[in-house]
Amino acid sequence: MSIRLKNESTHKLLLKGSTISGSSITSALDLPQSIPAGATLTSVVPSSTSPYDSEWTYSPENGDPLMTFSCSLSGPDGININPSINGTNAANWKTWEGPSMEDGAWVITFTYAGASD
Questions:
Q1: Whole-number Å distance between alpha carbons of 77 and 74
Q2: Is pLDDT of 109 > 60?
Q3: Tens of pLDDT along 58-94?
Q4: What residue ranges define each of the domains in the chain, with the CATH number in brackets?
């Protein structure tokens, strides 16, 4: 699974936390600590033959909204994405381009557009 994070706002996004469970390959997500304004960054989670759940949370510099995403993968084609977005500007976090299957792996693209951008 690849997680593509697009920041289309004028604010830096900050990683608040991430976890992965159930994977026989890795126990942590390698996500960027911050995503500069206008940047697109991608993180790859190593494939696993066993199902796994991953969760990560980002927030703009001002702390609103708090954006948590949970993805569950089971088998080569099974994926479930559960967004949890809290805060005044929660509607600005979109999953406009995801998920898609690229070269045999899921690519999940999340885009933050910003409150006033």
A1: 7
A2: yes
A3: 888 777 777 777 777 776 667 766 666 666 766 766 6
A4: 2-112 (2.60.270.20)
